[in-house]
Amino acid sequence: MAATTIEPVVLELDRLEQMAESGYYNPYTMFDWPESIEPGMPWMSESLTTLAGTPMWDELTREQQIELTKYEAINFFSLNIHGIRELMSEVVMRIHERTYANVSEFLHHFIGEENEHMWFFAQFCLRYGGKLYPAQPTLKADSVDHLSEVAREMIVFARILIFEEIVDYYNAHMATDQTLPHIAREINRVHHQDESRHVAFGRMIFVKLLEQVAKRDPDEVPVVAEYLENYLQYSIGTLYNPAAYRDAGIPDALALRRRALAHPARIEAHDQVLKRTRKFLTKSGVGREVIKS
Ligand SMILES: [Fe+2]
Ligand SMILES: [Fe+2]
């Protein structure tokens, strides 16, 4: 896996490293975990559920709506856990490679913080939901086999960045949603704080590696753009989990998932979630408009 043909990545990270140090907290003592969550409260913002804005939401009983917020919160936190674990393991493998010597200090912060995020997300799921959802077996991100070594390297960090930006959209909203239980708000707030540094770093390293891709072969740029667009769509799809619908007592989970994903109100919602990331990708030269048909 050694990234032999990748040039060293040099970034100015002093400010982000200082922020990571000064904002350091003990995740194991900082949350006040209640015995249970008050009945009747949504665990996830209603406007962020996968049925929000559609007639499918209105057709649910109030009880089913609350149950859906509960299981979609568990799904959202479970996605975080699986996503972090997979992506963090890629970073761990690279931390002492020559390519990353200059950013190694920041990567240590990143790994430490992500380990803590996995812990508090899992605490929430296990304490209040009694489980984590496994990754949906039918959903897989595209293979990177057709890409050059440097493009594959870039994709590792691009996937982290995209995942973090999508999650952060949800975290930022829920951090201040007063309808949520305090503990749910807190987890979203604390995660949002750490992720603002990760996203800043992710964008910087993405740009550097993309430069190397374009320099080696400009024709690979649209191929990478297509991969990234598909990855955005894949990531959105993971939020729609039939198991969460079933747990909320909603019948025909698979058909519901299909209907919801294709509903105009949801397509509009996806565009909102992805707006910031798409703007960044376009500015970087790998937006949807460069994809060759
Ligand atoms: Fe995280
Ligand atoms: Fe992160």
TrEMBL record:
<dbReference type="GO" id="GO:0016491">
    <property type="term" value="F:oxidoreductase activity"/>
</dbReference>
<dbReference type="Pfam" id="PF11583">
    <property type="entry name" value="AurF"/>
</dbReference>
<dbReference type="InterPro" id="IPR012348">
    <property type="entry name" value="RNR-like"/>
</dbReference>
<dbReference type="InterPro" id="IPR009078">
    <property type="entry name" value="Ferritin-like_SF"/>
</dbReference>
<protein>
    <submittedName>
        <fullName>p-aminobenzoate N-oxygenase AurF</fullName>
    </submittedName>
</protein>
<dbReference type="InterPro" id="IPR025859">
    <property type="entry name" value="AurF/CmlI"/>
</dbReference>
